[in-house]
Amino acid sequence: MCRVYLPRWLNYTLYALAEIAIIATDLAEVIGTAIALNLLIPKLPLVAGCALSILDVMAILFFYRPDGSMKGLRLFEAFVCLLVLGVVVCFCIELSMIQETSVGTVFKGYLPSSALVESEGLYQACGILGATVMPHSLFLGSGIVQPRLREYDARHGLLPQEPVSAASSTTDGYDKPTYLPSHAAIKHSLKYSITEVGLSLFTFALFVNSAILIVAGASLYQNPDALNADIFGIHDLLSKSISPAVGTIFALALLLSGISAGIVCTIAGQMVSEGALRWKLKPWLRRLVTRSISIVPSVVIAAAVGRPGLNAALTGSQVVLSSVLPFVTLPLIYFTARSRFMTVQPGMARYMLESDDEGRPITGSVSLPGGIDMSNPWWLTVAGLLVWLVIVVMNVANLVLLGLGKA
């Protein structure tokens, strides 16, 4: 959408910001994976852990096909779900080992307090926001649903034969006509996606992020050794204050979350580069380039810095994600609120045949008569803008405090 309907300079700017978010995410996930491997296998260097994370993600990407069959998509989703489930199990075990903490105290932690603007509170809050609502996940959500749309149209006889002009297309798929799903496929996939996102956000994501804070607060609060502790120090404190098993489970959860987030981040990076720039490279080479852009800075920092300063790098990367979030979400709010962009033609799926070098449609109107308006209602747009405004205020205040040296 950004490539097709926004000015070229703005599309490139948004692409650059999206890549910055992806690099920041990889910085956190790769270093986190390397640290987890180092905690589980102390003799394994951090750089070796980074290298192993690269090989793991590249292996998954070679088998993953965004335009492939639903079987491949479901296997990929199941693999990521298993990793997330492993993280949930780890934190369930850790929560069961916490003692002398009341339920009321836990729920009180969900209420805003003055601590949000004290010391590094706002800085850490922005980091948590960036880690929870990762900008690249917006691109991934819209890209990974494509096989489901196509499968629905094919199963219900709504997918027309691909135009013969595509026979001369190259194997990378960029010269092929663009697939436009039917209204029925969109409605079906929309219900599935809303349910999926709702369950993942309000069950797994909410639980895991809450569990991290609860475990940290219960075991590290008022502990003088925890004031300047990094991940290695937190692992040691958990092992000493609760039990050695908790420290091991913490490292295992860190490893599983790093692997799952790294895989998702890399695929999102591939989709961003394909959508914004229409890279005309072979699939495996495009994956390699996309992954390298994201992973090289992470490896360099892990190799050069080592243990000291990794905590600052991890938190800083999440703050970068929070800072990029308003720029990435504003086009989403804009496009979904306009009938011009959200009108779907009834009937069968279609193919868009003609486009210029930038992928912009040459023929056809954006909104033809008789189309079905699927834009967001005004109240949902207003709610989205209010949330967006809160995020902007948080990030601006955080940047001001950073400039004043108070964050």
From TrEMBL:
The gene is SMF3. Pfam families: Nramp (PF01566). It is a multi-pass membrane protein. The chain crosses the membrane at residues 12-40, 46-64, 76-98, 122-145, 197-221, 241-267, 288-306, 312-335, 378-404. InterPro entries: NRAMP_fam. Its main location: membrane. The keyword Cell wall biogenesis/degradation does not apply. This is NRAMP-like transporter smf-3, variant 2. It comes from the Eukaryota.
